[in-house]
Amino acid sequence: MIHVERIQIPTLPTKQPRRLYVYLPRGYSQSEARYPVLYMFDGHNVFYDSHATYGKSWGMKQYLERSKRPLILVAVECNTEGDNRMSEYTPWDIVWKGKLLFPARGQLTMDWIVNELKPRIDREYRTIPDREHTLIAGSSMGGLMSLYAAVAYNGTFSRAAALSPSLWAARHHEAELLKANPLASSTRIYMDMGTGEAEKHITVLTGLFAAAQRLTRAGAQVDARVVPGAQHSEAYWEQRIPIFMEYLLG
To answer: What is the CATH code of the structural domain delimited by 2-249?
Structure first.
């Protein structure tokens, strides 16, 4: 079962309504069980092809029903107006040749998720609200945000999946973030990148493993993978769902 409603994020300067999706596992209404919660970025791309930006979703509903994972999944649609997604999903200003391209609103986004959305979900649904049972995942800029959440909000999220993360937007900030935020030893992070995304830019792959090494040195358990032939799209991220879910929850 998936509940869909329109919400606003009042702390962000853009007030465009966006969809909030809440997936409840089969049998939820017939039991008193409590469940872990996975939060995901780009919620419009998570469940329904008809809502997805390019007509293809991750197919998370089909995976969860097929695997029978006892999990609540909460996904929030990004702001699709203009370049608002880039700003909402970057923790740091993105500057090119001295010009500010995208002002950072990633911290505002995460503060809302942690301080407003999560408490609401924990009130309204039978969650297991502690850190150990709270996960986060995303791809591309959403993957960058998942890594940011796992570090800057390590007291809230114990596990994160970052598929094809846009590490180019982090530059030196990610290393500085790790220095300022010690990680709990139980932190578990999955990262990957497809070779089809890096055919002309091998530094994308070296950057992935450099980031994985820094996270490992900071105390996290990290699974970093290169996926042969994989491109930068939902169809390819869908193929990796069983891999990262097994790593995070196995």
So the answer is: 3.40.50.1820
